[in-house]
Amino acid sequence: MEWPQLPEATEQGRQAYMVGLERLDEFEGDVKLLSSALRAFQSGNSKPYACAGVAYTLLVAAQESDGSYTPAGLTESMKWLEQAQELSPDVLEINVIEAMIYAGHGRYEDARLVLDYLQEVDPYNYQLAKAEVAYWKPQGDVDETVHWFNEAAKAADNVPQRLRMRARLGDFYFELHQLDEALAIYKEAIHFDNRNVKLWHKISLIYWQQENIDEAEKVNQQTLRLQPDFGPAVKLHEAIKARKNEGHRTGRLFG
User: From CA 232, how far away is CA 240, in angstroms rounded?
Assistant: First the structure.
């Protein structure tokens, strides 16, 4: 790809950068989103924002399913970030990436130094709050992680950002097996985004884990109405059907 050569961090570059970041924040394994984000960064005609965008793309792509990071990806991400910082050293939305890379490496003291400095610059920044989540979550600090998810939702620049942070807080509770808390968050999110297939599916999974089979089936049917070929919901439908058949057989046995 041909990258912008304009050395200034322009407003056009910033707008393109924010579009690209939004696309990356929706990434859940579909590499088309990564290439789409790169094209957005390329379109801004601003080299520092473009380099920072590549750095963030590499950071996202380097994350494994268990939350850890491939070291080579983090190293390459830092190389691109340093190019951006050399051209524009004082842009908060660029510099937060440095803290996230350090956190990915487990270099929490270095990450904290960057975050503390940026907190003095703009303590109510959405991108900074996201970086705080990336700092606290891998350290297992539940209270701080929840706090910064909520701060990110409050600092969000638009409704999709706010809903994404609320849904990810629900995911965090789900990972901790705090199912009631996760369910409350997902229900709140679905109220504002009631055609979100993945949210409906997560709600049905909670009911399934809580052994509330009837509710799991009802919500899963809603998921399949929205997207009949959604693989995880199809599998859950089969599991629910098997569970119900098993119950019927047991009922006949003890009838």
Answer: 12
